[in-house]
Amino acid sequence: MYYKLAPSILAADFTRLGEQVKEVYGAGAEYLHLDVMDGAFVPSISFGMPVIKSLRPCTRAVFDVHMMVEEPGRYVDRVVNQIKEAGLKAGVALNPATPVRSLECILGQLDMVLIMTVNPGFGGQKFIPYTLDKVRELKNMLNEQGLKTDIQVDGGVNAGNVREIIEAGANIFVAGSAVFGRDPSARTREFMDILKE
Length: 197
Ligand code: DX5
Ligand code: ZN
Hints:
Blueprint: E1 4-7, H1 17-26, E2 31-37, H2 49-55, E3 62-68, H3 70-74, H4 76-85, E4 91-94, E5 112-116, H5 131-144, E6 150-154, H6 162-168, E7 172-175, H7 184-195
Parallel strand pairs: 1-7, 2-3, 4-5, 5-6, 6-7
Helix pairs in contact: 1-7
This protein binds D-xylitol-5-phosphate and zinc ion.
């Protein structure tokens, strides 16, 4: 299994965003997690298209855009098709209270499922332990259907709990406050060493 780190720029220093993005990519993070919040689906407003557009030329990292906005949640089927028709990969995020079974019918169309390991809206929260059972349940459901869909986790992930999350079956790890802050490249390398074990 190939593991990937997706640093969440929500915890980055926005006055030095370009530099910090280059740092984490240079240290081995292949994905960059971009939390778009609309102030309605979640209370916070983060950033949107101008920021994402200006980052695109700065890095070759895969942009992993986490849409915490009202519209996509209402029309999941339609939105997944639209995303795919645009030549992009599509994933669905499940908040802690949303059951894994709700994805049963759509699973075959998805490239990734994000199991939220905190309630969305803010960085720096504590990992919710019962979400690991959801990762296991999803992994079993994918195995039953013979699917190799990526399982991503987001919220409270750090170098201390990532091994346990790997064991549960996830392979893409979002980390905001555990990467940015003091020395993002050293923190990224520390994660990458664990992911390569
Ligand atoms: C929370 C966001 C996360 C956040 C993670 O709603 O979806 O991506 O940036 O931050 P940490 O890793 O600090 O929990
Ligand atoms: Zn996120």
